[in-house]
Amino acid sequence: MDVTQQEGKQLEIRSPKGTRLQQEARIGLLFLSPWLIGFVLLKALPIIAAFVFSLTNFKMLSPGDTKFIGLENYIHFFKDTAAGSSLFGSLGYFLLTVPLEMVVALALAAVFTSPRLKNKRTSRTLIFMTSIIPATSIFFIFIGSLEYAQRLIVQRFDLPPIDGFGLLLPFMALWSIGPGFMIILGAMESVPHEIYEAARVDGAGPWARFVFITLPMISPAIFFTLVVNLTGAFGGAVLLDRGYILNFSLSPMESYINNMMFRDGNLGYASTLAWVTFTVMMTLTVLLFRSANRWVYFPEDDEVANV
After folding, report:
1. What's the CATH code, domain 55-131+173-306?
2. Which of 31, 57, 60, 173 gives 20 to 30 Å between its CA and that of 260?
3. Is the pLDDT score of 149 beyond 70?
């Protein structure tokens, strides 16, 4: 270290290592600056603006008549039965589709970790490609195929009509499991094979190894996928955009907010609904994080305990 004396009053110690770390921090912030600017302009400011709009009666067709009404929109929400049913509908959609997505993603990942499977790279690509195809295209393809099946099979053999919306929910949920499948597959492939070999020597079968070794080891990936799917189920999938059209969404609450905003032009109340949804979603996310200590395995905790 370089030691310099300033006028005989005090010694100033400068660390080259500290200077280097500061330079690296500045470079890191420089590379992060595009994302930070985009986050502030496209995320933080709109969120704050939505909260301000939620305290007004802002109408998109008559912005000049906007007045501050305080918490009237939030009070109206508790009286709005359609908004309440949409919120509970989004919660039901989460409880229906997310377990289905998780089970199928786990099953596929377990199959892809088998050494007997051939052409894994091509198959992984095909599964993931389904999630990047715009959901609007898949929706119209599914509806068209269902109508053709109705005419070709149901009407010809005089069968009961097929509930298209009932089939649409699990179909669209399974169609977009690509990201979750890749995350869980990567976690499974990172599990040390020595643990499986030791369990096999001790007499543990395939099912026991999967339940008592694989699931605990990949629980952080399952937890992350669960949080992401929670965000998508309530609308506003900020991490994995499903690409739904504005006036339709598999999330009832998101559809209700879109209708309130673009059909009725009531931006003030739509902002209120968005903030209520955000609050409910964040509450559930906090509860998930609180429960993580009971079922999620964090290897760094063992490292700290052994120090």
Report:
1. 1.10.3720.10
2. 173
3. no
